[in-house]
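seq/struct pair 1
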Amino acid sequence: MNIAVSRKAMNDAFEVTYPRDEYPQGTAAALDALDEVERIESKLSVFRFGSRIQYVNLTAHEAPVHLDDELFALISLCRQIAEDTGGAVDVTSGKLWKIWGFAQRDGRIPTDDELRTARSCTGYHLLELDTEEKTVRFKKAGVELNFGCVGKGFALDIATAKLAQHGVGRYLFQGGLSSILAKGDWNIGIAHPLLAGERLQELPLNNTAVSTSGSQKQYFRYNGKRYSHLLDPRSGEPAAGVLSVTVTAPTAVLAELLSTAFFVFGPEKTQEYIDSCSDITAVMCVPEKQAPGFSVHRYAAAEH
């Protein structure tokens, strides 16, 4: 029998599921892990007064800001993946996220001036990282970091250490329905982006992380057009042409970053990227004009 222990964090439900008979200490372990999620949220949240990221966003254009090892490693990885994907996923897009209204979950069309200004403050090239001093500096005023595309995965990766400390070696650790870290063998279902309550595919997991990016819940319509909350940092516009992307990767951080990047990429570019990564897989659902209204693409590195 499996036991699930959950708590709300990062505006979602985090949950640890484990086999009760194998781990009588599982509940204590899960509570420790969930405490760790809350600690990470207090560091990364742009909404929490006094958070480290709020301080970075306010001051890093004036002088380098010192970071702890944990946060410096996260920003460094995000910058590297942004570079690897040509800016398809970029944590410097905080201002874009605001002008489209998604920060307040009240979507709106930005003015041309707003979009121009936000785009000028977006781009991984505006981050200056000092690996010796562990500092970050913004090369331009107005840059804003936002970890909405990676925060849950980062929390899962960090908090899983608490489960290991308690000796819990088989579990499913979820950050909402979009991010999962699995230890041991588990089976999950990928939610269908168009058919409520149905599964797009069954997905077996074994010591891997999963992230799904989609716009089923966060979007708005204007003049008959649908605008996704998933933005293309390169254009400053909502990404289009994909319904959902599910990625498996060795870590939850990497799965989250790449599921967002692949949503922006679309089918062809996603295959190109995965061909260079032997430990990444993806399932992408794209809209089609003919029945049934969608098609499913599966990606894994080509064998050489």
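seq/struct pair 2
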Amino acid sequence: MLGSGTDPSHQRGRGQELYIGGRWTEPAKKDLLEVRSPHDRSLVGPAAEATKPDVDLAVDAAREAFDEGPRPRLSPAERQDVIARFNDLYAKRTEEIADLTTAENGSARWFTGWTAAALPQQTDAFLRAAAVLPWEEELPRTDGAPGRILVRREPVGVVAAVIPWNAPHQSALVKIVPALLAGCTVVLKASPENALVTLLLGEILTAAGVPEGVVSILPADRATSEYLISHPGIDKIAFTGSTGAGRTIAAMAGRQLKRVSLELGGKSAAIVLEDADLDAMAEGLKFLSFANNAEACVAHTRILVHRSRYDEAVARLKDLVESLTAGDPSDPATFIGPMGRADQQERVRSYIETGIREGARLVTGGPEVLAGLEDGSYVTPTLFADVDNSMRIAQEEIFGPVLVVIPFDDDHAVRIANDSPYGLGGGVWTADEDRALEVARRIRTGTFSVNGAPFSFDAPFGGFKSSGIGRDFGAAGLTQYVEYKTIAV
């Protein structure tokens, strides 16, 4: 029996073929991947795996489509029409996408359903930005010289989009959609763990009328990914993943002067001031800290609590962590499923053991797997208190269901929150909005929420410091895929 009762391997393109330049193509490597459920290790389905010859074919197709084909010369409106058709088709398949993502990834079905339904909104935001972006504009001459100055926004070229395993479609579409709207061509390197659901995108792209050569989808390992990144036919690298991998990619891009955008890790701090509503705080952190099995770069995992409310907040967070229902991710009652990979399970458990050795107080949870879930990649949701911000569990991204609580006095919260190599997200909980905004303006992160307020797909998303370079979403994300050309007439 397969991981979620679904066998997608009979469907063309999500079994024995790769999606190369808009065509379903037999891979160079004949051995198929076995995509297995992290819930119970059962087979979800076989899938093709790309190797270097497949990368060469994909880059050649993308290069030809960009250099010789009509793609870059289509009008912005024509490009937008294709993406609008894709978005309509995608919205009709969200249930299927959610089921398959849960089977492959172990993400709880409530989360994959919410994400699949939200992604058309993400694409709509890109479409809104593309509709008003001045693709060509005339600037006034201020030097008294005759003639005109034209500024054009042109596609950057062939994009290598490299994505992680934790959120396959969100990570893919936040790169593919703006790249195509800008007129680029794309080679998407997907994780083997998500091969089936990521290849499903090829079916929708073809049905939407994306021309041949414009998009390839290649599930592949790290060595093949590095080959793609260093390929001379690539103009720009768009990467989402760990900070360590991002540093490697940035160095490779620098040697070749390739354009690069990096959405990397985080260790976001949630600041709980003395006037905070602790019930609202706990309910908000249920999602801000533990959504997608807590495998989220922007998760709020450092909880900074004013000492006057510290014991009360720790007790409330203990209740929250112990209330999380862990188990089969396809069960609607499950809030938190397994880690997406077995090595990630061991990594998170090793951090829990590190926290104990460092002297943090283990409030609930621990390295032992919950009874009955030993066959999967499960981690027991864990809460540490009395944590010092210098501890590894406070400084390093764990990428799993582990919260650390740090007390602060007076005005020290901002200093502690900023004492991190990361700068992706964070938040503050308080009854005083003016004070919240004062705190928000002092935190060195790319995103920040007040009392759990949701973000918008129209607004930029990205990080300071080691959390990345560049921005996703809306107009800011779209401009990551253009070059500026100035023409004097």
